[in-house]
Amino acid sequence: MLHGYLSYIYDRLNEYIHEFCKMRLYIKFLLLFMTFSVKLVAQNYQALHGSDYAGSIAVGYNPSSILSSPLPWDVTLLGFQTKNYSNLYYIYKPVNAATGTPYATWFNNGEYERKIFNSSNLNLFNTRIKINRKLAISFGANIRSVTNAITSKYNYIDTITSSNSFLGVNFNNQPFKAKLLSSTWTELFGTLAKTVFESKETKLNLGVTMKVNRGISGIVFDEYDGRIDRVAFSSPPSYYFTQAELTYAYPHVLETWDPNSPLSSNLKNGFKQTDTGGSLDIGFEYMVKDPRNYFQFDETPNDDYIWKFSVSLMDLGFAQYRYGIQSAKTSGISPNAYGVKFENKFDASIQSMQTLTDTLKTMVNTFSKLSGRYQIYLPSRLVVNIDRKLTDYIFVNAEMSLNAASILYPGKYTLHEMNLFSITPRIENRNFGFYVPVSINHYGQTWMGAAIKAGPLLMGLHHMNLISAKRNLQNGGGYIALVISPYQVVKRVKSRGVKCPI
């Protein structure tokens, strides 16, 4: 029995090596493409979008795509990705790892709008099961987080040492604006995908995902129409606010944290205080067969198409939170505060939300505590994807992602995603894959990434600057996933030798 098991493992290794060797020439061409493209400034992650081997990961861009996989099932045991962009600060690596400055962060000088974006998610036991060739389901759990922040144009110089000097160099940049939205939530999802039309030339799949979430943390900061003036005859110059509109909110769950209690108790009690939200994904996928092989779609091969078109609406919904006790909205500046130096009010003595609230009350015309519940709407978007099969191993995918939350929910707290347009050449089969996504994002940057799939392991980078750049390392990120799926038992070959063709 042991001999048979070892023999099976040996046969699987042989099969992997032979498959890799057959794909080696294609990999060389893709590496050559990367060599000529690596100087692009920036990108977005699209590695597995459009791939029949995306499996349960395909739920993240179109729920109908889970039906395209030729495998009967797969499970993403664990997957993690994070994507980040900012022009507020930069991170640079040392010139000499042994003697140079360690990785450090500095704020960028200049006069322009500052922006921050982060999107992270942890996938746990995302499972896809193909009931039959016309019906598939998927389910699992995720922890997700999205942060969007933007300011109006302002000038920053690294010689600035106080808030007064900062206001002075930005006197001509009024009115001031700054907005921050950050939402973190856990979700359980269930997906159903079904073939609704099939002929010998085409096939149409529809899919829908229902998600129930619990809001862990939702942060809101919105300041606009901020205006200042100079304190008369002050030397050095001092400034005070003459107008500002301000809203800030945080979730009640943060107030349940007890530093004297163990971590497990805090997490358990905090989760009980979270609120329930929900969201919906819906999409379709339309495949066109190779005219040389017109016949009914069969289980093997499932990727026998020349064109695959898909459209989806993703993350239609919200995460919900209860206002923390110090959450508030203010309007205007009290006449009593005119001429009061900014630094006299907002100094090192403010170390809690309570003292911030007490200080603001003395400065504004109206001050209103926020109570009840509030919603942060998820990054709803329209995703259009086109996949072209060139050979048995080579594919090209193109995708457009358009943010829609601000249109669907005007006047609400809405998040957005970073993706805009991506094109991804890839070579892959069931066991191996190599991907080079090149993307333009909503911040006008072009990123180039790379990913590799080897058996159950998928790993990659959103942006190759982590390898080639010396600064701006904050722009990019990476991902890793462990996906298990069934393997076909192959017949043992007579020859035990493994050779790659030259």
List keywords for this structure.
mainly beta; 14-stranded antiparallel barrel; disordered N terminus; 502 residues; elongated; two-stranded antiparallel sheet
Q: What's the helix and strand layout?
A:
Elements: H1 2-37, E1 73-86, E2 89-92, E3 104-107, E4 110-112, E5 115-132, E6 135-151, E7 154-156, H2 163-169, E8 176-198, E9 202-230, E10 239-249, H3 263-272, E11 276-289, E12 305-322, E13 328-331, H4 342-345, H5 353-361, E14 366-369, E15 373-377, E16 381-389, E17 394-403, H6 405-408, E18 413-414, E19 419-428, E20 432-435, E21 438-441, E22 446-448, E23 450-454, E24 457-461, H7 465-468, E25 476-484
Parallel strand pairs: 15-18
Antiparallel strand pairs: 1-5, 1-25, 2-3, 4-7, 5-6, 6-8, 8-9, 9-10, 9-11, 10-13, 11-12, 12-15, 12-16, 13-14, 16-17, 17-19, 19-20, 19-21, 20-23, 21-22, 23-24, 24-25
Report on this structure:
- The protein is mostly beta strands.
- It has one domain.
- The protein is built from seven helices and 25 strands.
- It has a 14-stranded antiparallel beta barrel with strand order 1-5-6-8-9-11-12-16-17-19-20-23-24-25.
- The two termini are 37 Å apart.
- Mean pLDDT is 82; it is low at 1-6, 19-45, 294-301 and 488-498.
